[in-house]
Design brief:
This protein is an alpha/beta fold. The protein has helices spanning 5-14, 72-82, 93-105, 118-133, 158-162, 173-176, 187-197, 222-233, 252-257, 283-286, 305-320, 323-345, 372-376, 380-392, 413-434; strands spanning 39-43, 46-49, 54-57, 111-115, 137-141, 179-182, 201-206, 236-240, 263-266, 277-281, 350-355, 358-363, 395-396, 405-406. Helix content is 39%, strand content 14%. The protein binds ligand KE4.
Amino acid sequence: MNQYCRSEAAFEKARKIIPGGVNSPVRAFKGVGGIPVYFSKANGAFLTDIDGNTYIDFVGSWGPMILGHAFPSVIEQIVKAAQSGTSFGAPTEAETELAELIISMIPSIEMVRLVSSGTEATMSAIRLARGYTGRDLIVKFEGCYHGHGDSFLIAAGSGAATLGVPNSPGVPESVASCTLLAKYNDIGSVKSLFAEHGNKIAAIIVEPVAGNMGVVAPADGFLQALREITIDNGSLLIFDEVMTGFRVSSGGAQMLYGIEPDLTTLGKIVGGGMPIGAYGGKKEIMSMISPSGPVYQAGTLSGNPVAVAAGIETLKTIKNNPEIYLKLEKNADRLAQSIIKSCKSLGIPAVCNRVGSMMTLFFTENNQILSYDDAKQCDTARYARYFHAMLKEGIYLPPSQFEAWFISAAHNDTEIDNAIDKNDAALSILSKEIK
Ligand code: KE4
């Protein structure tokens, strides 16, 4: 019996009744081939699959698990909240407590609305920007992913890039035509769009650190230039911090780079692994949201008490233990440096982009990856072989070249040492292929 036989059987069963056998495309291993691994439990830095194999996890549920899996006090708060009922469909004080925490940690947010996913947050934020400005056009960047809202599935990143179908069927031309595409880290491409459409552009939405083309940091001055061009044209600047919020610093990318957007979208960490998204910004703009204003947005499970309990405990833990970011920085830096050193010593052309505890190893002849065009040239077949070599060594990486690795506060020296050793083993397999 091979070491994944129960996952193979589970996948065979699932794909008969769930599209592609998964509830989110990137999980299907299309980007790396093979059968997705089914997990039964997770704890700290570790995942255990249904065949009993244990892995050091660098996906972290795609970002939420910054404290590590099954963090004791988060679990405790989830259980406690659930014992008082799972959903009331009515306001609770805990929602106000989470809103206060978000506002205290994200510099630009004066008012915030909770929703149930990052996609809901970004869809709502652009509707609000359109309602507030009275304009229809949105600017997004090729390779950036903002969830699966119709307006965003135009040259999207993440799973859309992985699947090679960036423009999804089912998105009406009338909707797609309201989305303008610019190139990340190319301010000239933004200026050209504003020169032609400036007074019709409601907002720019941007990942302040791109994570869905693989990790690509903003070039010096890029975010500031976006801030200036939106102010000059009466458009809003939306920072999609679903991934970077509370990840790259306790105040997200906007605190790290010192830029104040008009609106911010959040997800992942804000829910501590439970389904929460959020969008917020200046009171003057957020007050346009129903029922205080005319821009409609609603959700049965928005502000769900069990999810909110997880979010509160996660953010409180982060806020009260700022040294977490020092540990994340030290471990992520050591891992990234060691991986690149090994690649160089084995003659494997690669680049590792890292911002805080999110990083991506790109297999590329380029000596830097600064844009989606750069990322698209990567050797995705070599990444796939590396992925499976690491998987066999007990290291679980994102099953796509166009995703971010995440290090958690539960990854200690031992786990980083282990990952470095296993990386050397995996790369030496690749280096034999090259000769
Ligand atoms: P969700 O709807 O998946 O909660 O959030 C959408 C979203 C919005 N904005 C950014 C910057 C994001 O990264 C995401 C979702 N990220 C992907 C991983 N790259 C989620 C994983 C998946 O699609 O299964």
